[in-house]
Amino acid sequence: MAAAPLSIVSSAGWKTRRIDPPSLPESVLRTAPTPISVAVWINITQLDQLKDARIASKLSGEGKVNLINCDPGWSCGDVVEYQLDKFGLKDTIKSVRGKYEALMAEVIARVARGEPTLYYAWSPSWVMDKLVPGKDVVWLPTPFDAVPPNIKVSTSALVPGVKGCAGGQDPCRMALGQWNYVPIANRDFLAKNPAIKRFLELSRYPRDTWAKWEGDIARDSSPRAIKAAAEAWITENRSTFDG
Question: Is the N-terminal amide bond of 21 cis, ω within 30° of 0?
Fold first, then answer.
């Protein structure tokens, strides 16, 4: 049971089974945050305000604003670039795609120095453990839903109750609608371990908790560190775990 925080059991071969319901009661959020101080300074509460070159210039002294995007090949990056076109932002914003972790290390450093920055992110993730929405950064809402034809979505990008949405907007229109993590486990393993199957069915983790785990694992992904995170969660949530 020490692997509780991951909520996903690695599968051996193709005999896997999805375990419902999803593990996050709050679902996953995705759009472009910017530092709070910057958003207040230039009075920006919406992503498409950056169509105005005068506003965009305050985020960059080098012409276009660099928007740190997903890795090449990731569908989230394709969505961002599609939206830049649909929102009329390609003249003022440049999509920067590379190794996301390396690019975000510089973003975190820029925020720490009080410098303007713009990046795509999702919550929960290790980034949210470093740059907390509502404290360090704000989510910039998009003007309307826009998704490439090859990307299938089942929910609106308009999400209620988002912490740190610019201007205190509620609901907040994200880049994409909410989605969730679902455990996948080997069927034979589940058959031999019904208690673990039941645990996975009942497990629920707040976004902030999941973000902290991802931050911890980003710093140390060794089996020892993952086991320590699991045991810490069990200790802090003993009644839930035992129930």
Answer: yes
Amino acid at 205: Y
Q: Which of 173, 191, 213 is the last residue of a domain?
A: 173
Task: Give pLDDT, residue 186.
Answer: 87
Q: Are 140 and 47 in contact (CB under 8 A)?
A: yes
In this predicted structure, what is the pLDDT of residue 41? Answer: 74
What's the DSSP call for residue 161? Answer: T
C-alpha to C-alpha distance for 19 and 16, rounded to whole angstroms? 10
Asked whether 223 and 43 are in contact (CB, 8 A), the reply is no
Q: How many domains does the chain have?
A: 2
Which residues in the chain show pLDDT less than 50? 1-19, 21-28
Secondary structure element (H or E) that encloses residue 191, with its range: helix 187-192
For 119, the domain range is 29-173
The per-residue pLDDT for 230 is 85
Domain assignment present for 86: yes
Do 141 and 211 fall within a single domain?
Answer: no
Question: 234 and 208, same structural domain?
Answer: yes
pLDDT at 170: 94
pTM beyond 0.70, yes or no: yes
Please check whether residue 3 lies inside any domain of the structure: no
Quote the CA–CA distance of 43 and 138 in Å, as a whole number: 12
